[in-house]
Amino acid sequence: MPDTSLFDLSDKVALVTGATHGLGMAMANGLGAAGATLVINGNSSQEKIDKAVAAYTDAGFAAHGYRFDVSNEDEVETAVAKIEDEVGPIDILVNNAGVIRRIPMLEMPLDEWELVIRTDLTSVFVVSKAVVGRMVERQRGKVINICSMMSELGRDSVGAYAAAKGGLKMLTRNMATEWARHNIQVNGIGPGYFATEQTAPLRVDGHPFNEFIVGRTPAGRWGNPEDLQGAAVFLASEASNFVNGQIIYVDGGILATIGKPSNE
Ligand code: GCO
Question: Is 161 a catalytic residue?
Answer without folding.
Answer: yes
